[in-house]
Write a structure and sequence with these properties.
- Pfam families: DHDPS.
- This protein is α/β, with parallel strands linked by helices.
- The protein contains 13 helices and 10 strands.
- It has a domain at 6-234: Alpha-Beta Barrel (TIM Barrel).
- The protein has helices spanning 7-14, 36-49, 69-86, 101-114, 130-142, 163-172, 186-195, 207-210, 238-247, 251-261, 263-270, 288-297, 317-330, and strands at 17-21, 26-27, 33-34, 54-57, 91-95, 118-122, 148-153, 176-181, 200-203, 222-226.
- The strands form 2 sheets. Strands 9-8-7-6-5-4-1-10 form an 8-stranded parallel beta sheet.
- Helix 2 (36-49) packs parallel to helix 3 (69-86), helix 6 packs parallel to helix 7 (186-195) and helix 11 runs antiparallel to helix 13 (317-330).
Length: 337
């Protein structure tokens, strides 16, 4: 675990590679319980079978808004326990966003106490008074904890911090060392880098990596919270092969590989089911049922309640058919994990 004082020097070397954002497998009537064995299996699969060096816990894909504080704590504890049995050096990232600063503080202190490496705080989702309010939120948490902190700037919060607002948080809160820029606005990420050049930055728009932004030091070699386990299997390491080329600076080879392996077409074939509910097309979401359906196609356990908890809707048959067709075209179906 990196303390607040060590955060920035630690982040520059420790945050590297594919970081898997873990889903939550539900079970029982209405998904009121969690299938803990299935969750342990998912952690071992990501760390041992795929060899991914980072875990991203209790964030959007995990449906944190539907989990109790006790459930979120236990999910993190299991990820640390199972993950470090397989790889003592696995970097565990805890997302501690909550509707209240006090609940976020409780979760962040817990992450610190159980040995998470860093806590990420998504831009507050309720009653946020812009960048000033976000700064107050981060300052409140940082003044009461001693762990590295990261920003998660997602449009699912309903408000996206401007580059100047994010840079101010970085400048005034020394524990903040990294950010996941999830709004797909690369021009803003470039400006943020200019304002805070030592901030470890992950841009969700992957085209910037092909444009040489990693080589130029604008973005980092860390995927901060992606569903990497849904893009490859232990016997077909599509995503790892692609990113290894990018990280090695072999951009032409990476572009060729993305096209020839089917990864580029896979993005097109999937459509927007993972992040868009058709009944609210202007809203960016993390549709838990869609991620878990994809996982089930790869043979991963998702619990006996395959849907998301409320307030998310159930995944329609149309989505399942499109997702399955995309996986068949990519050639990953029938390859047991």
């Amino acid at each position: 675990m990196a303390t607040a004082g060590e955060a920035r020097s630690w982040a520059r070397t420790a945050l590297r590679g594919i970081g898997d954002s873990l889903y939550t497998p539900f079970r029982g009537p209405d998904g009121d319980d969690i299938d803990w064995d299935a969750y342990r299996t998912l952690v071992r699969y990501c760390v041992r079978d795929l060899g991914h060096p980072m875990l991203w816990c209790t964030s959007g894909i995990s449906e944190f808004w539907s989990l109790t504080i006790d459930e979120r704590k236990r999910l993190l504890e299991i990820a640390i326990d199972e993950g470090r049995k397989e790889n003592p050096d696995v970097v565990v990232q805890a997302c501690t966003a909550s509707m209240t600063a006090k609940d976020c503080l409780e979760l962040t202190l817990h992450a610190q106490q159980v040995g998470a490496d860093i806590a990420y705080i998504q831009t507050p989702m309720m009653e946020l008074h812009g960048g000033e309010g976000a700064l107050r939120f981060f300052s409140y948490i940082a003044s009461r904890t001693d762990i590295a902190l990261g920003m998660f700037n997602s449009p699912s919060s309903g408000y996206v911090l401007s580059p100047a607002e994010s840079a101010r948080i970085y400048q005034e809160v020394p524990a903040v060392c990294a950010t996941k820029e999830g709004a797909f606005r690369p021009a803003s990420s470039r400006l943020l880098h200019q304002l805070a050049p030592d901030l470890v930055l992950w841009e969700c728009d992957r085209t910037v990596y092909r444009a040489g932004w990693l080589r130029d030091g604008i973005v980092s070699a860390a995927q901060l919270g992606t569903a990497g386990y849904l893009f490859e299997t232990p016997t077909r390491r599509l995503l790892s092969e692609y990113w290894n080329l990018v990280w090695a600076g072999k951009l032409i080879e990476a572009m060729d590989y993305g096209r020839e392996s089917g990864l580029d077409q896979f993005d097109v074939d999937l459509g927007s089911w993972w992040t868009c509910y058709p009944g609210r097309p202007d809203y960016f979401t993390h549709w838990g049922g869609a991620f878990k359906y994809a996982a089930s196609l790869l043979g991963l356990p998702i619990g006996d309640y395959p849907h998301s908890r409320p307030p998310q809707a159930e995944l329609p048959a149309e989505a399942k058919a499109q997702i399955e067709k995309a996986y068949r075209r990519l050639g990953l179906l029938g390859v047991a994990p």
